[in-house]
């Protein structure tokens, strides 16, 4: 006979869940390091034992102890972060919304300055290129958001090289061709696209705009562009898919979880929801040191504390990136590719390939494509640009059969700011090109309308450049239309990209603390 457990022996959280809603007064009684409850999205959680494990330090959580932390939590955490990291017995229950004392957000001088800049933004009809969006975003984003979005690893050589590489490839246009009508639409992994561009995955969209990644989904659906959903989106996966129009193609970027069962459920759920391709990130067994992001710990409220006081071997907070990525599995290897093929029928693309050797291995492993990417310069600094790697990788893949290969796609991302960049990559053998930060800065500056404007800018640039090149369709963009002989020259007389340089923020050194 089963033992009947009396109420006084049940866990507190279960007793609470079985009774009425929790009052704000009850939550407020747990506002210390010894007993710390917080409210997130109308649910109460006991985070006492998680304080010293929080990648962002304990002080930022203690600031909201006994209070509603939703506003602080939401922009820098994926929707399921608290569910994945906090044991179920620490989920106390639902809050009575009528009893919660709202946290009054202090309007700082910095907030006032940012609002004034938002009010003074250039009207969209004066935004002429993707650099303009970046300049506006740099001005209006909170410092933490700009640091996270713009940062790259170590000395930020690769992020700058990603941009500079395109300036070392020169066009060789053809003349006297009837270019009355030009068509830049294409097919990407069997999906029609109005541009030879897809929206590459970028994390934490709500750092830049309250609607986060939904800005991209809505604009992409309206204009026939494919969006890659990030694993670390601010919006939930289902929110994003639900925002798509019927028949809108979506791809999924995947960081592989240490718990393969979680990964399996996520991938199969995505396939059931209609996602067409799985882009597995393979260049991030450990995150690069993104110093702009890391330095934010010294200016954020209380986030400069060690994760665990008194332990020399415990890392300090390393910025937003560290706070959201501890689940990523560094053991991911080639032996996992057959497993992925066994759990899904989606196209499998490896995102983060840099060498011909690995490109061939991906082809032989049965993948449907690769992305030549260095993670936007955020991983291994001084790694080559995707554009430079494209030349060697295409040459290697040509030894495996006819080219272009309809069953194996090669994509490039990193540093793209113009349609002319995309055309150079296509001429050198790319199937299509991913644009991440360009669209990210567009919605951070102007929301969905910004993304739509960015798409229109690219359309206008494609039309002009294809006419001037003498190409009427994407298939007519051929290697003979570019001179890439200077691509390997990493130092030379390449003209400076003044627009890019005007928005690039140089790294800073450690600062002395000002005594008040």
UniProtKB/TrEMBL annotation:
Residue ranges of domain FMN hydroxy acid dehydrogenase in the record: 122-487
GO molecular function, one term: heme binding
GO biological process, one term: lactate metabolic process
Enzyme Commission designation: 1.1.2.3
CDD domains per UniProt: FCB2_FMN (cd02922)
InterPro entries the record matches: Aldolase_TIM (IPR013785), Cyt_B5-like_heme/steroid-bd (IPR001199), Cyt_B5-like_heme/steroid_sf (IPR036400), Cyt_B5_heme-BS (IPR018506), FMN-dep_DH (IPR000262), FMN_HAD (IPR037396), FMN_hydac_DH_AS (IPR008259), L-MDH/L-LDH_FMN-bd (IPR037458)
Main location class: mitochondrion
This protein's UniProt keywords: Flavoprotein, FMN, Heme, Iron, Metal-binding, Mitochondrion, Oxidoreductase, Transit peptide, Transport
Pfam families the record matches: Cyt-b5 (PF00173), FMN_dh (PF01070)
Essential cofactor(s): heme b; FMN
Domain Cytochrome b5 heme-binding: 19-96
GO annotation, cellular component aspect: mitochondrial intermembrane space
Compartments it resides in: Mitochondrion intermembrane space
Coiled-coil zones: none
Catalytic activities: (S)-lactate + 2 Fe(III)-[cytochrome c] = 2 Fe(II)-[cytochrome c] + pyruvate + 2 H(+)
Similarity remark: In the N-terminal section; belongs to the cytochrome b5 family.
Quaternary state and interactors: Homotetramer.
Protein name (database record): L-lactate dehydrogenase (cytochrome)
Organism: Agrocybe pediades
């Amino acid at each position: 006979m089963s033992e009947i457990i009396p109420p006084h022996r049940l866990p507190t959280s279960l007793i609470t869940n079985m009774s009425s809603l929790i009052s704000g007064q009850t939550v407020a009684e747990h506002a210390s390091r010894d007993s710390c409850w917080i409210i997130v999205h109308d649910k109460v959680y006991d985070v006492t034992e998680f304080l010293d494990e929080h990648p962002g330090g304990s002080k930022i959580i203690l600031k909201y102890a006994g209070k509603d932390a939703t506003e602080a939590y939401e922009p820098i955490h994926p929707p399921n972060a608290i569910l994945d990291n906090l044991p179920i017995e620490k989920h106390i229950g639902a809050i009575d919304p009528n009893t919660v004392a709202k946290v009054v957000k202090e309007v700082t001088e910095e907030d006032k300055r940012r609002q004034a800049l938002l009010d003074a933004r250039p009207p969209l009809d004066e935004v002429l290129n993707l650099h303009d969006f970046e300049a506006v975003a740099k001005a209006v984003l909170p410092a933490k958001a700009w640091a996270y979005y713009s940062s790259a690893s170590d000395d930020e050589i690769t992020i700058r090289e990603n941009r500079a590489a395109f300036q070392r490839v020169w066009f060789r246009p053809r003349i006297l061709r009837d270019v009355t009508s030009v068509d830049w639409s294409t097919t990407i992994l069997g999906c029609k696209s109005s541009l030879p561009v897809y929206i590459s995955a970028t994390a934490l969209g709500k750092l830049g705009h309250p609607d986060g990644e939904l800005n991209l989904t809505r604009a992409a659906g309206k204009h026939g562009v494919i969006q890659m959903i990030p694993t670390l989106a601010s919006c939930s996966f289902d929110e994003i898919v639900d925002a798509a129009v019927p028949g809108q193609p979506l791809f999924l970027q995947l960081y592989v979880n240490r718990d393969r069962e979680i990964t399996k459920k996520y991938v199969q759920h995505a396939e059931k929801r209609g996602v067409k391709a799985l882009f597995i990130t393979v260049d991030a067994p450990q995150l690069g040191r993104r110093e702009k992001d890391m330095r934010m710990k010294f200016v954020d409220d209380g986030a400069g504390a060690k994760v665990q006081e008194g332990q020399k071997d415990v890392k300090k907070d390393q910025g937003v990136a560290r706070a959201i990525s501890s689940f990523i599995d560094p053991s991911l290897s080639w032996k996992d590719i057959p497993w992925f093929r066994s759990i899904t029928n989606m196209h499998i693309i490896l995102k983060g390939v840099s060498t011909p050797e690995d490109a061939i291995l991906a082809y032989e492993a049965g993948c449907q494509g690769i992305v030549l990417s260095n993670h936007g310069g955020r991983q291994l600094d001084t790694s080559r640009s995707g554009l430079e790697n494209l030349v060697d990788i295409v040459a290697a893949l040509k030894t495996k059969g006819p080219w272009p290969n309809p069953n194996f796609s090669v994509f490039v991302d990193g540093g793209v700011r113009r349609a002319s960049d995309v055309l150079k990559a296509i001429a050198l053998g790319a199937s299509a090109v991913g644009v991440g930060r360009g669209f990210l800065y567009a919605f951070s500056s102007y929301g969905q309308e910004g993304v739509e404007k960015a798409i229109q800018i690219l359309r206008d640039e494609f039309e002009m450049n294809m006419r001037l090149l003498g190409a009427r369709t994407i298939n007519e963009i051929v290697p003979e239309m570019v001179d890439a002989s200077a691509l390997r020259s990493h130092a030379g007389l390449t003209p400076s990209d003044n627009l890019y340089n005007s928005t690039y923020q140089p790294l800073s050194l450690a600062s002395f603390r000002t005594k008040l």
